[in-house]
Amino acid sequence: MGEISKPDTNPIVPALLNFFLIGGVGYLMMGQQKKGIISIVATLLLSCVGVGFIVPIITAYDAYLLGQKLQSGQSIGEMENGLEFLNAVFK
Fold this sequence. Notes:
Layout: E1 3-4, H1 12-20, H2 25-30, H3 33-48, H4 54-71, E2 76-77, H5 87-90
Antiparallel strand pairs: 1-2
């Protein structure tokens, strides 16, 4: 897996994209394509059963944490998570 390094990332932008657009667009912006696609599919599928609103909330916070890490000059992995419990979902 590759490492993503974008020190000019504003953590609020990917968080807002994940929250207001289909959950996962912020991940795509940060370079986490696979994770973004999984999040978008999860949002659409869970919307069919009435709980799709949960994904954008969780992914917005996760994207904010990862954005902070990028802004501080650290790199993130393609499937890295800011929230520990997401490791069970994305790995």
